[in-house]
């Protein structure tokens, strides 16, 4: 079935388009009614008529099934209140629907999402949090609506630093190096390699020679390089598991994967006449990009030393994702500072014909994680915060909060619940922030069971499940949904808005819209509890209220799941 919003838009559009073909009702939810249509002014302007006259004509059209009242307000808005019988029929259709009115897209699209992207032989830190959490939420939500998602974890696993890292591995010995890497102490390994490089010219010469061997395909050097990559990927997988992120080792497609395609990128751009020499480098100058002096800005594809820049790798990735993976959409969940670089890569790919207009391509930019001083989040000593340590601290604080609350759980269950709460706290704080904005990382606020937080939504779900358990077996299909008061009607409208919240989040690659919807739903639940006692009610009223609770619990569980957050049954 279509969502309530979609049905109403379709019915309103008939009246609008009789006056002006192709016109849009511009339907929005409203505090003064159930919905408000704001598209009358545009129609009136096209017709050269007073907006209120046009609004009155549409309101009197008489073919708006499901609408109880439609009133003209202000300069020409239409305030719409739905027929209770229509609302009841829409709610009844949700009771037996596992997806709660959310239809699968047809036909499904192939969506390639580039996210997380840590570096080999370096630990994941707080700077990787936003890409990982936002990307995973988008991947989960795209899968929820039926799209095929291909995740691409574009790790940094190639380039000149690997000569240094391989030589350090040899100096330590393979067994010791593997032991150091396998316990996740990647920073110590990398810092040791950097210290040796800075202290010894002989080590520097060995490192540079090793890079040549690596790039030339020397089997032994490649074997040693694989040790570094494999141990790092295993560490990344541990972090993803701890954070409950769906990325797997199979999703790791690093810079090295595209190495053999880089010469083809250069030669094909040259054959298309797009390459120009600039100070010894081979570049493309896409139109519309200039520096501070207004001069054309180059995208460097091949450096003056004949090495390849990041642009060549990114162009090769676009070609692979469109040509081999047959992507319909490309989403790059990458920090805002990379906006110009990616925009230039996309522009060049389109000029070259590698990124057709039929393929949607978006840089899903995001802001930074800040500390209490509103500067980049670091430890007191000024070091970057490790992602694992950050999550461990959140788990410990959540555990202490559960102990203080006196939950009747054994210790293992309490630990598991603390982990779920910690993940929810960290993920929701990130996802509920409009992604282009920075936000302050504050565990005290994130872990609170009140306010706009992940644990608050988890508690709202657990409370509903508790009510349903205490109610016992109830035939919810018998619910008639009279919606006798404002809080129950308000809750019903929110429940019917679930498909539209998901669509809105996907349309703008904006998980915060789904967070806003879920928080609003939880607030409406509070008003509903206060006005509508559930377990003390009797007969049809009790069944109706339990059915609303069941629909709300299922909606919260689906919504939290789309964000990568667990919905505990008990808290």
Molecular structure report:
The chain is an alpha/beta fold and about 575 residues long. Among the domains are: about 5-80, Gyrase A, domain 2; about 160-255, no CATH class; about 455-560, Orthogonal Bundle (Isoleucyl-tRNA Synthetase, Domain 1). Helix content is about 55%, strand content about 10%. It contains 21 helices and 13 strands. It has helices spanning about 5-20, 40-45, 50-60, 85-95, 130-145, 160-170, 175-180, 185-200, 200-215, 220-245, 260-270, 310-325, 340-350, 385-405, 410-430, 445, 455-470, 485-495, 500-505, 510-530, 540-560, and strands at about 25-30, 35, 65-75, 75-80, 110-115, 150, 275-280, 280-285, 300, 330, 360-365, 370, 440. It has a four-stranded antiparallel beta sheet. The longest helix is centred in the middle third of the chain and has 25 residues, at about 220-245. It is globular. The mean pLDDT is about 95.
| CATH level-four homologous superfamily name of the domain at 454-562 | Isoleucyl-tRNA Synthetase, Domain 1
Quaternary structure annotation: single chain
Number of strands: 13
Give the distance, in angstroms, between the N- and C-terminal Cα atoms: 34 Å
Compute the gyration radius: what is it? 28 Å
Assign a percent range to the helix content. 40-55%
Percent of residues in β-strands: 5-15%
CATH topology of the domain at 454-562: Isoleucyl-tRNA Synthetase, Domain 1
CATH architecture assignment name of the domain at 454-562: Orthogonal Bundle
Provide a count of the helices. Answer: 21
Class by SSE composition: alpha/beta
Shape: globular
Any low-confidence stretches, pLDDT <50, length ≥5? none
The major sheet is characterized as: 4 strands, antiparallel
| Strand order in the largest sheet | 1-2-4-3
Mean pLDDT metric: 93
CATH class call of the domain at 454-562? Mainly Alpha
């Amino acid at each position: 079935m279509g969502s309530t919003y979609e049905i109403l838009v379709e019915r309103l559009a008939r009246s609008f388009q009789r006056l002006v073909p192709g016109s849009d009702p511009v339907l929005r939810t409203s505090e003064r009614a159930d919905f408000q249509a704001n598209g009358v002014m545009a129609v009136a302007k096209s017709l050269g008529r007073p907006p209120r006259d046009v609004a009155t004509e549409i309101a009197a059209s008489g073919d708006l099934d499901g609408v109880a009242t439609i009133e003209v307000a202000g300069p020409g808005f239409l305030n719409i209140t739905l027929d209770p019988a229509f609302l009841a029929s829409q709610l009844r259709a949700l009771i037996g629907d596992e997806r709660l009115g959310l239809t699968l897209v047809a036909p499904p699209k192939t969506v390639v999402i580039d996210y997380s992207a840590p570096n080999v032989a370096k630990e994941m830190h707080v700077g990787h949090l936003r890409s990982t959490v936002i990307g995973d939420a988008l991947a989960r939500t795209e899968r929820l609506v039926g799209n095929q998602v291909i995740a691409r974890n574009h790790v940094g696993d190639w380039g000149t630093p690997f000569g240094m890292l391989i030589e350090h591995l040899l100096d330590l010995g393979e067994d010791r190096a593997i032991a150091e890497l396998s316990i996740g102490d990647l920073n110590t390994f990398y810092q040791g390699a950097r210290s040796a490089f800075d202290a010894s010219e002989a080590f520097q010469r060995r490192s540079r020679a090793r890079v040549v061997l690596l790039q030339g395909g020397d089997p032994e050097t490649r074997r040693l390089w694989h040790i570094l990559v494999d141990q790092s990927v295993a560490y990344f997988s541990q972090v993803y598991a701890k954070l409950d992120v769906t990325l797997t080792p199979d999703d790791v497609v690093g810079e090295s994967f595209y190495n053999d395609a880089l010469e083809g990128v250069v030669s094909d751009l040259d054959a298309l006449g797009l390459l120009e020499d600039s100070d010894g480098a081979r570049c493309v100058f896409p139109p519309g990009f200039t520096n501070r002096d207004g001069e054309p800005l180059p995208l460097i594809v091949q450096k003056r030393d004949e090495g390849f820049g990041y642009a060549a790798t990114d162009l090769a990735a676009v070609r692979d994702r469109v040509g081999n993976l047959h992507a319909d959409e490309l989403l790059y969940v990458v920090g805002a500072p990379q906006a110009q670089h990616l925009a230039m890569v996309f522009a060049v790919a389109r000029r070259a014909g590698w990124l057709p207009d039929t393929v949607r391509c978006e840089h899903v930019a995001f802001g930074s994680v800040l500390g209490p001083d509103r500067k980049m989040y670091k430890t007191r000593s000024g070091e970057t915060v490790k992602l694992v340590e950050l999550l461990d601290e959140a788990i410990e604080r959540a555990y202490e909060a559960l102990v203080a609350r006196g939950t009747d759980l054994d210790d293992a269950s309490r630990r598991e619940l603390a982990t779920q709460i910690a993940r929810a706290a960290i993920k929701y704080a990130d996802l509920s922030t409009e992604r282009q904005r920075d936000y302050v990382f504050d565990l005290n606020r994130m872990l609170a069971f009140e306010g706009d937080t992940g644990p608050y939504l988890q508690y709202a779900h657990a409370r509903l499940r508790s009510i349903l358990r205490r109610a016992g077996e109830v035939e919810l299909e018998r619910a008639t949904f009279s919606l006798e008061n404002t809080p129950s009607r308000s809750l019903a409208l929110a429940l019917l808005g679930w498909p539209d919240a998901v669509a809105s989040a996907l349309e703008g690659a904006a998980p915060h819209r789904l967070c806003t919807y879920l928080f609003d739903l939880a607030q409406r639940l509070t008003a509903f509890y206060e006005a509508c006692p559930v377990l003390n009610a009797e007969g049809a009223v009790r069944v109706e209220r339990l059915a609303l609770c069941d629909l709300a619990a299922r909606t919260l569980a689906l919504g939290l799941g789309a964000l990568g957050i667990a919905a505990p049954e008990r808290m």
